[in-house]
Design brief:
CATH superfamily of the largest domain: CV3147-like domain
Low-confidence stretches: none
Number of domains: 2
Shape: globular
Radius of gyration: 20 Å
CATH class of the largest domain: Alpha Beta
Number of helices: 13
Structural class: alpha+beta
Largest sheet: 7 strands, antiparallel
CATH topology of the largest domain: CV3147-like fold
Strand content: 15-25%
Oligomer: single chain
Helix content: 25-40%
Order of helices and strands: HEHHEEHHEHEEHEEHEHEHHEEEEEEEHH
Length: 389
């Protein structure tokens, strides 16, 4: 795009928007922790996104988060994200400018400037990179996302299930290769192509996707999802400082922010892992299963969890306790730090917490697109609160 970009404050002033929050290092660290917890074991290494955002702030760039009810209908937004196997990301961190390059090429394709970023998910890396991109571009970030958790495939969003689409998607890599994917309303094909591009790039790509208008953002997103993650991260960090139970404080935060009950259902240590990652046969996903042996009051019980980048389901002694799209988190019992699928090791100890998915993810279309049968389970979806009531 030609010409000098205005700042995010200039954009908000043009919109007549006064309801925004300034994101500093403390704020982004809390948001990133909360998003990593909600990321259901996936979402990539949060340190990569967090340090990237710190760098943007250290450069003196401002990051502002705006309430979705304060944005005009006609503005153009887009999501920036990492796509591929989380374990590969740890080995191949991004070079500078990849998100800028993706956004600029998307703007050229749309022939419209991007005026705000929208996080694609609550993920360890994908939440903070939306803030980093906003700071680099001089645009606000909107307090929404497409999942309020992390999911492994591009089409697994509230946006698609409510009638808007990921195309066009621009995919780039560290060598500045660029691929534009435009499959119209076929989001499954867009995911397939984007995944193949990521594999061709070496397992990881950086994308600009979901070009939504302001009205579409409000009507189809998980509203105020970033504030939910922020409150969760703040609660856990305060628990650490005040020597409180981080799991209990997390559950209190979810009750306050979302009015949902979370469930503490198991405590144990990892006794077996089967994990494969990044290959062509796996389509670039980290796949496998983990077995945990119970400790303390759960001694003698066994938990098994399948994962595809993120935890998919939980069985304790063969009884199903959680199915997608509901959330599973394994958290360090002392710190509340999430144990991710890409870093877990034998002997790791943690508490399993289950959280109901957002209602915009539980529509019939949502259950069809990312419920248990999509992942190959011969099971009907049953809400986690019913399974654990």
């Amino acid at each position: 795009m030609k010409g000098q970009r205005v700042s995010s404050r200039d954009i908000l002033q043009e919109w007549g928007t006064k309801n925004f929050r300034v994101i500093d290092k403390k704020a982004i660290s809390e948001i990133t922790l909360g998003a990593s917890i909600l990321a259901t074991g996936g979402g990539g290494d949060p340190e990569i996104g967090l340090l990237w955002t710190y760098k943007v702030l250290d450069e003196g760039k401002e990051i502002l988060m705006v309430d979705p009810m304060e944005i005009p209908d006609e503005i153009q937004t887009a999501s920036t994200a990492c796509l591929g196997a989380a374990l590969v990301l740890t080995e191949k961190p991004p070079s500078g400018g990849v998100l800028n390059l993706a956004i600029r090429r998307l703007e050229q394709y749309l022939e419209r400037p991007i005026q705000a970023t929208i996080p694609i998910e609550c993920g360890g890396v994908n939440s903070p990179v939306a803030y980093a991109a906003a700071g680099e571009l001089g645009v606000p970030v909107i307090d929404v996302d497409g999942m309020n958790r992390a999911f492994p495939e591009l089409q697994m969003t509230s946006w698609v299930t409510h009638g808007v689409h990921s195309s066009p998607t621009v995919s780039v890599d560290n060598r500045k290769n660029i691929t534009v994917i435009d499959t119209g309303d076929d989001d499954v094909l867009a995911e397939t192509l984007a995944r193949r591009v990521a594999m061709a790039y070496g397992g990881i790509s950086w994308i600009a996707t979901y070009p939504l208008t302001g009205r579409q953002v409000r009507e189809t997103s998980i509203l105020n999802s970033q504030s939910i993650a922020w409150a969760a991260g703040h609660a856990v960090m305060c628990a650490r400082q005040e020597h409180l139970d981080p799991i209990a404080e997390l559950l209190k935060s979810l009750k306050k922010e979302r009015d949902v009950e979370g469930f503490r259902v198991f405590r144990g240590k990892i006794v077996d892992i089967r994990r494969e990652f990044g290959s062509e046969t796996n389509k670039g996903f980290t796949l496998g299963q983990v077995i945990m042996g119970g400790i303390d009051e759960y001694k003698g019980q066994t938990a098994s969890l399948d994962f595809q980048n993120e935890w998919l389901n939980l069985r304790v002694d063969g009884e199903v306790l959680c199915l997608p799209p509901d959330l599973i988190a394994i958290l360090d019992s002392e710190t509340g730090e999430p144990i991710r699928t890409d870093i877990m090791k034998y002997g790791y100890r943690g508490t399993i917490v289950l959280i109901p998915a957002h209602e915009r993810m539980r529509t019939p279309k949502g259950i069809e697109m990312f419920g248990p049968r999509h992942f190959g389970y011969d099971l009907d979806y049953v809400p986690v609160e019913t399974l654990n009531g």
